[in-house]
Amino acid sequence: MTDQPMNDGGLVAYGIDTTRPSVARVYDYALGGKDNYESDRALYRQIMKIAPETPEWARENRRWLSTVITWLAEEAGVRRFIDAGSGLPTAENTHQIAQKVNAACSVVYVDNDPSVVAHGRALLLDNDRTQFAAADLTKPEEVLADPAVAGLLAAGEPVALVMALMLHHIADYEETREITRKYAEALPPGSFLAITHACNPGDGGPLDQLVTELVEKVKHAFPTLAFRSVEEISSLFGGLEILSPGVVRLAEWHVPGVRIDEPPLTGARDAIYGGVARKA
Ligand SMILES: C[S@@+](CC[C@H](N)C(=O)[O-])C[C@H]1O[C@@H](n2cnc3c(N)ncnc32)[C@H](O)[C@@H]1O
């Protein structure tokens, strides 16, 4: 692909606008990926001036995702995964992590970014236990009616719904809560909801100042971006039981029941929080 939309059925056919930054492609660039364009890289350079820890946040988030998916497949016995707001394919994707533990794991990816839809579908062509749903996650009824999602849920077996670095792209907090409540309600008993989310402690301290400046700087490109407090993030689990260690900085999170002595946390890791909840 080139940086310019092609008129002959190339990028334009996918609805990909390379002239404006996309969340998925800026994140891809932060992770060292190649599926991005000058508009994405220009915004990333602005972000880096304010938050040089951005690539560390992205890598930490992918590490967390890998730990959680592995634990869910290996210890919790989950065989069905929905990766909601999956992003562009990267080094280790959810189906590769889960199927490494058990080849019988099925994964449905959901995203509405045209770049992700195009690349995701291409990646999954050769994996018959993996599907892609092009859908807007702010519309739970439509997502839940998608044949791939509905098919995964229909068996009534536990499903892990993963919403990593996705919910902070919905501006309205009450709407975000209502969305996750609807997804939680649709999950069969024994299912899991795993969330990571950008956090603003709201205490006027250095992290508060940094993320406030960041949100202001990118608002022309990502107007719905909303960093939230730990309490607000914790209330996004649809009333499900949040497993130990709770909603914590990603570096503090560990597999339930296993205590890990972590080295002292760096400030750079403070901005992303995550947790895993289970439906009784
Ligand atoms: C920062 S990326 C995170 C990718 C991946 N979940 C991870 O944590 O590595 C956020 C993704 O959420 C997707 N996304 C944001 N809002 C969405 C929506 N309303 N419906 C579907 N996907 C959405 C974006 O397109 C993007 O691919």
Automatic annotation (TrEMBL):
Keywords: Methyltransferase, Transferase. GO terms for biological process: methylation. One of its GO terms (molecular function) is methyltransferase activity. InterPro entries: SAM-dependent_MTases_sf, SAM_dep_MeTrfase_SAV2177_type. Pfam families: Methyltransf_19. This is S-adenosyl methyltransferase. It comes from Kribbella kalugense.
